[in-house]
Structure formats: structure tokens, C-alpha cells
Amino acid sequence: MPVLPASRPRLAPVAVAAVAAFPGVVLAAPRSLALAVFALLTACSLMACLLLLAAVETFPGAAEAPGASEELDIGWRSAGGILDTAAVLVAQLAAHASFEETASVDSADAEEDFQRGPMADTAAAFAVAAPISLAMASAGYLRFGRDVQGDVLQSWHGATGPGAVILQASRCAYAVVLVGGVALASKPCLATIQELLGTRRSAPGAAQRASQHRGAIVLSLCALLTWLQEDLGRQLRVLGALGASPLALLLPPLFHIEMARRQFGRDIFSLDNLGAMFIMALGVAITAGCLFDTIASSMSPPAGHRGERVVVSSLENITTHRWQR
What we know:
The chain is mainly α. The protein has one domain. The protein is built from ten helices and no strands. The chain has helices at residues 11-26, 33-55, 79-96, 98-103, 110-116, 118-144, 162-197, 204-228, 232-264, 274-299. This is Amino acid transporter transmembrane domain-containing protein.
């Protein structure tokens, strides 16, 4: 069993993040115009700060070691690397694009949303999220190249003077974007939990309290998982393959095709369902591919199991066992 002391370095940041995200999770109407405008302004300021950090070379900062996951194959050299990259990107983009997906949950004009199909909602959601991710990736790679750390903002750890101010502004803006994303993403999640549990609709006050309790439980479980998980890259891969991919790419087009068949008599293999099928096929490929890769890697013996040569980069925590007869 691993030792989990209360003084673990990530405990304080995780606790602060959970406390900061809790008010947004329990809000009754997170889709207010003020929140949307504030989120967009914050995202714009974040991208502006990142572009300043990338363009001005006088801002100090040197990546000591890439923050890469030891069990994650990110790259385009193999099929597994492509699947891992797709899973991580889906998890990241789905988190940033949560407010666009939430907008279709409470829409008054449900018939118009249905006629547009999941292709329009998914494309709009990722179009909103892509600039943030592209700005962070471009800022890191333009400034540090392959030595950029997994957390791009950690690459400017030595910034001083004006650079430190811009760096802190970037971190604050990104924190606000993530906290807002948690608040907006919680609504469809809580609505799904309510439907799965078969909770009856009661008085507004009681329903709001029940939603707050469920939100607190879900947020606590997420915080606990974040605290216990050492390899956040591996966690992102699992969440992207088994969570974000089915919820954002697989289930919405599947439900759309089935509802069109029942309500309008549309054939499953109709040309009108081509966009939905493309998104669904992408979700199936990411989820099934990552599952197959996980099963294959778990069944294959590690290096050195049958005498293969093993290259050890560190001798830390290696002990010598003495066998007694």
C-alpha cells in the first residue's frame, strides 16, 4: 500500500482547486450571459499573455526536463501513439468546450437543435476550445522546442520583472478558465446522473439541494482521484478514452440517429446521418483502440521478465535481496 501522508505536495493545490470549483458546481444557472462573457474575455487574455511570453525571448525560462508520462506513448510513430494522442486531446478539448455542449441541454428550441444534429454542436464546441489549446501548445513549442515541459506554463519558471507579471496573469487566467469549465461541465454530468438514478422531479428547493449534494460528491471523488494519481498523463488518457470520447463523440450521434429513426422514420444508413456516423466512428476507434492497447500491454511481460536486456536510467530505490538456503 502506498504511503499517503497529509503533507503530500499536491494535497494543498487539489484542495484549493476543489474549493474554487465548488461554487460553480452548485450554481443553479451557470449558463448566464455574464459567465459566458467573462469566460471568453479570460480566454482572450490568456492567449494574449501566452503570445507575449512566446514572442519576447528576453523572458527567462528553461525547460529542465519534459513533463512526459512514462507510460504514455504520445506521438505519430505508431498506432498506439496516435490513439494516446487522440484520447488526451479529446479529454482536454472536451473540458474546455463544456459550455458549448451544455448549451444544448437546456435549449428551449429542442427541435431546431435536433435538426442541426450532433455534428454542428460538436464542431462548434471544439472550435471554441481549439484556440486555447493551440495557443498554449504554440507558445511552448515556439519558445522551447522539444524541451517544453508537459505543463507549458512551468517552462517559464525563472521569469522575473515584467515576465513574472505576465506569467502570473497567464496562470490566473488559465485557472479561471478551468474553474469555469468545471462549473459548466458539471450540469450535463449531474443531469445524466439524475436520469440514471431515476430520481423523481420534486419541488424546486428539494431538487436544487439534491443536485448540490450530488455535485459535492462528484467533485470530491474527482479531487481524490487527482490527488492519488501520480501520472496525470495516464489519467488524461483513461478519461479521454473511457469518459470524454463516449460522452462527446459516441453517445450523442448514436442517440441522434435513433431519435431520427423513431420520430421521422429516417433510415439508419441515410446520407443525413453521415456526419453523425463519422463522429461515432471516431469515438469507437479511440475507445476501442485504447482498450485493446491496454489489454495487450497488460498481457505482454515487461522487459527483463525472460532475460531480456533492461536499460535502467536511475538506481534510486533499488534494493538487493539476499537469498538464504
